[in-house]
Amino acid sequence: MGSYCYTMDFKPDELRWQAIVNEIKRRIEAGEYRPGMPVPGEPRLAVELGVSKGTARRALNALIADGTLYTVLGKGTFVSHPSDDDFNEASTRHDQD
């Protein structure tokens, strides 16, 4: 997690919380956030991306709901570990390439 701060360039027809979901997933795919690694909390994410805390919260909640992230009470929000099914599916796709 970098200590950088920038404002995201949002597309006019794009929901900000969805753009943040996509940005966090991009960071995970790029290896910037790895399984088990903490992600910035709502206040930090809001400042980092130039959005309100409510928008950051909605994005994090969507990522928790879809299993991309998980929370540990009193500890924070973390990148989920790929499930065995995800690993097997990715291996199968790779084998077919």
UniProtKB/TrEMBL annotation:
Pfam families: GntR. The keyword Coiled coil does not apply. InterPro entries: Bact_HTH_transcr_reg, Tscrpt_reg_HTH_GntR, WH-like_DNA-bd_sf, WH_DNA-bd_sf. Residues 78-97 are annotated as: Disordered. It comes from the Bacteria. Gene3D superfamilies: Winged helix-like DNA-binding domain superfamily/Winged helix DNA-binding domain. GO terms for molecular function: DNA binding; DNA-binding transcription factor activity. GO terms for biological process: negative regulation of DNA-templated transcription. CDD domains: WHTH_GntR. Residues 14-82 form the HTH gntR-type domain. Keywords: DNA-binding, Transcription, Transcription regulation. This is HTH gntR-type domain-containing protein.
